[in-house]
Amino acid sequence: MKVLAIGAHPDDLEIGCGGTLAKLALQGTGIFMCHITNGNMGHAVIAPDELKKIRVKEAETAGAIIGAEVINLNLPDLCIRSDNEDLVKKIVDIIRFVKPEFIITHSPNDYMKDHIETGKIVFDASFTASVPHFETSSPFYPELTPIYYMDTLAGVNFLPTEYVNITDTIETKVKMLECHQSQIKWMREHDNIDFSDFVRTVSKFRGLQCGADYAEGFTQCTVWPKLRTKRLLP
Ligand SMILES: [Zn+2]
Which pTM value belongs to this model? Predict the structure, then answer.
């Protein structure tokens, strides 16, 4: 089994579904983590050209912890548009290449445009990937792949309908997140935010809602024919 997670920026997947991806990896699932941007605007001091190299590397290190394949589409931050046909085509190609059992991406309620547009692109591309005459470098994938939306930042405006118990993988999730030192260090020093504690708190709160020590929450994209009778999340 293979699962594809698509996030806007390097570190979004670790924040939203890192514990679930770690859990799936332990169960033998092949994990593909796709980041659309290189995160080049994510710092107030380090210049974009230097930062993008650092962040792509940080994401690769984080993915390696769970043995994930990490794909970076190398777009600049703040430029994700769901009407970017070239970008949609790239995501179609990735879906056709991976042939995932399901895809995890950003919720339509998330806090900034790159995230929301990423969710729209995944919705669009997951349909388009099944269309035989839409040509990309990979042949069409006839499945209409189910999509799960991961939690919003800090869980605002998000009511999970499914939970994954990540008690056994919370430390891996935090370890993956801490690979993104350019972000963690900056936020700790200049915004007074301990981001590891932030993520731990959200996971603990989601755990409280479902009787686990730590959990991640998800909703499903409920359109025909992306629904299944069996639970797909671990
Ligand atoms: Zn982000």
Answer: 0.97
